[in-house]
Amino acid sequence: MIIEQPARFLRWLYPHAVWRMDKNERAVYLTFDDGPIPEATPYVLDVLDQFGAKATFFMVGENAHRYPELLEEVRRRGHSIGNHTYNHVGGLRWSSWKYLYNCHKANEILQTKFFRPPHGWMRAVQYRTIRIFGYKVVMWDLVTRDYSTRLTAADVLENVKHYTRNGSIITFHDSLKSIDKLKVMLPDALQWLKEQGYEFRKIE
């Protein structure tokens, strides 16, 4: 549970970050990390369209630079864009200056004020500076672990069913590690969420 739904002490590390939206509203906020890539992002967009769902894509700048047509397609279909650094770098292993430069480099392409740190970690000084630069740090209330080689598509779907609650920010990945599972379970997950009365919203 400490992975799928972050414990309270993890949320205290970044007190001004957004971990969950309004718990009084029957809505969920779908997010997709690590894209855009042609092997995954178009499929995700088509499934979202099938359910009339909007989402937020936290993009790796290098991928967006390589596939600008996918970046524009995500925008054209009415979804939100977030910054996930240029090279998917972990803040704990990079100097603060290099980390912030990597984020800035990505944002020259993405043009967004939403930021999600890869792996969910960054140094305190990085977090403070990111906020000073005007970014809104968006974490998650539920990470589905669709990237895990230890989980099946059924396991990922069960994570969605078990941990989703009002205002959940749900994290999937439009990546090579996740796409095989998403092709099996993403339509079922959205169908189940719809049947539970959840409204799909994007972060904006």
Question: How does this model look, in words?
Answer:
With 204 residues, this protein is an alpha/beta fold. It has one domain (8-201): Glycoside hydrolase/deacetylase (TIM Barrel), CATH 3.20.20. 41% of the residues lie in helices and 14% in strands. It contains eight helices and eight strands; from the N terminus they run H-E-H-E-H-H-E-H-E-H-E-E-H-E-H-E. It has helices at 8-13, 41-50, 61-66, 68-76, 96-110, 124-132, 153-163, 179-195, and strands at residues 27-33, 56-59, 80-83, 114-115, 136-137, 142-143, 169-173, 199-201. Strands 1, 2, 3, 6, 7 and 8 form a six-stranded parallel sheet that branches. Helix 5 packs parallel to helix 6. The mean pLDDT is 96.
Helix vs. strand class? alpha/beta
Q: What is the residue-mean pLDDT, rounded to a whole number?
A: 96
Overall outline: globular
Summarize the amount of helix as a percent range: 40-55%
Low-confidence stretches: none
In the CATH hierarchy, the third-tier topology is known as TIM Barrel
Key features?
two-stranded parallel ribbon, 14% strand, alpha/beta, 204 residues, six-stranded parallel sheet, TIM Barrel, globular
Give a short summary of the structure:
The chain is an alpha/beta fold. Helix content is 41%, strand content 14%.
